[in-house]
Amino acid sequence: MSKKQDILDAALKLFTENGARATSTKSIASEAETSEALIFKHFGSKDNLLEEIIKKGYQAAAKTTSPYLIGQTPKEYIAKMIELPIILTKSNPDFWRMQYKIIALNLISSRYHDIFMRPCFEKLTISFEKLGYKQPALEAELLLIHIDGVWKYLAAHALDSERENALISTMKEKYNL
Amino acid sequence: MSKKQDILDAALKLFTENGARATSTKSIASEAETSEALIFKHFGSKDNLLEEIIKKGYQAAAKTTSPYLIGQTPKEYIAKMIELPIILTKSNPDFWRMQYKIIALNLISSRYHDIFMRPCFEKLTISFEKLGYKQPALEAELLLIHIDGVWKYLAAHALDSERENALISTMKEKYNL
DNA sequence: GTCTATAATTTGATAGAC
DNA sequence: GTCTATCAAATTATAGAC
Q1: Strand C contact at CB of residue A25, distance < 7 A
Q2: B 138-167 residues with CB < 8 A to A
Q3: Protein B13 CA to nucleic acid C12 C1', in Å?
Q4: What is the DSSP letter of B158?
Q5: Which of B13, B23, B40, B168 is the most buried (most CB within 10 A)?
Q6: What pLDDT, in 10s, does the model give residues A123-164?
Q7: Domains, chain B, ranges and CATH?
């Protein structure tokens, strides 16, 4: 299945550079050094190819993050959530760069992301509640907006680790963590 | 110049729905109830049409925000920057919704935004410095990431004013404002 | 699994009339 | 300023051979 993987790699690269809509199946075939027809034999359509990339990305993300996020105290959970952007982008930088590029416009992309992040709001709300915050749901919403901004920033800019960690530490201080 | 404005309005609407790349000049002409040729007579190319929309958007944004952001004390400046997402998205919601949708993939879009936001980093750094923050440049970078996340969130979700203001207030508390 | 060839449609843009 | 008619190229996808 080397050619199939070549197509997935080529598509990830080109979707990242130009977006899914502006990437032609011809250019994917060319980058993967295969025929255009093979793309459709393997994936059916361009959208299915994208969905397969995204599905794999979030499966990997779930595997990476689930050990981090279970069984924590409220403070630990919030701290881990603040670290989430680093955990994700470090473990799969190319995928998250693609997601950053296409998520605002692509329904497949945004739907998978919503499902992935959905449990976090409730857990954050409960965590803030336990810590005595006056408006726990609002705090959770605000922190999720921030986390969303940070993973996109890290995916887009590829900072060195030192600066990444400094940003995350500074953020934790705002929540006394 | 009614037809020219019709084209601008139609393009803004369709670029927001599908992105610039996926919006055909034919669909713009149809939405504006004009001929396709007129788009090219007025704007030369699809990219020029988009650039004109963006240029007008940032000119309006500069006009709206400049009275807010001059001659402030450090604390006031930081507070106003935290309010910036509301100021922008309230004054021109359709434009900022389009920007949210296309900025990650579109060079014209991101270039204008960078120029618009560029002065803020230095001013924020100086403000944090004056307030005695230990790592003013890092604080400025972090706050700008946050502001970026917030305007995109407000542009995308169209919250009611009450909830918008609650988010902004909660954010200000983190900086003792 | 992989290829060549090709169909059917859509695209951005232009020419030329009024 | 505005239109109709048109073009050359690019697009997604399929058929059929190996």
Answers
A1: no
A2: 138-139, 141-142, 145-146, 148-150, 152-153, 156, 166-167
A3: 19
A4: -
A5: B23
A6: 999 999 999 999 999 999 999 999 999 999 999 999 999 999
A7: 1-44 (1.10.10.60), 50-174 (1.10.357)
